Amino acid sequence: MKSTSSIGIDKHETVNKRLKPLMIISAISCSIILLWILFAGKVDPYIEASLTKQGSIDKGSRLFRMNCVGCHGISAQGLVGPELSKVTSQLTDERIINQVVKGLTPPMPSFEMESQSMADLLAYLHSLNQG
Q1: Distance between CA 94 and CA 63 in Å, rounded?
Q2: Is the separation of the CB atoms in 55 and 114 below 8 Å?
Q3: pTM of the entire predicted model
Q4: Whether 128 contacts 85, CB under 8 Å
Q5: 82 closest CA partner among 106, 112, 114, 49
Q6: Could you tell me what percentage of the chain is helix, strand and coil, using 3-state DSSP and rounding each to the nearest 5?
Q7: CA distances from 103 to 13, 43, 78 (A)
């Protein structure tokens, strides 16, 4: 027997009309979460190569003096650019690499460098945080 309201509307039909948008939103949300899970774990090959290499603090220091002191200061105290002496405790190595190679925050330029040079620069930045 069909359940109807006092005005003759099928109660199941009303419930289905209300649930349909929620089901669509749920399906879209699940799809977005699934895509995020699939693609979030992918590591950029350049970042991976930079992180797997052993960096040299001395070479990183030279790179820093040649490319970074004009904006970040000779002792990474900050000038036009921010202070970097504790940057490795504030940002992940992946975020630091992205910042350097993509220049994400103006006026920071982007720098092209070999993954070994990036490993050297990271080693130097880590040494600043220890001092």
Answers
A1: 18
A2: no
A3: 0.68
A4: yes
A5: 106
A6: 65, 0, 35
A7: 56, 19, 16
Neighbours of 60 (CB within 10 A): 22
Confidence band for 5, pLDDT divided at 50, 70 and 90: low
When pLDDT is averaged across residues 12-33 and rounded to a whole number, the result is 80
For residue 109, give the DSSP letter: P
For 77-123, the pLDDT digits (tens) are 999 999 999 999 999 999 999 999 999 988 999 999 999 999 999 99
Contacts of 52 (CB under 8 A, 6+ apart): none
Q: Which residues contact 81 (CB under 8 A, 6 or more apart)?
A: 68, 71, 72, 107, 108
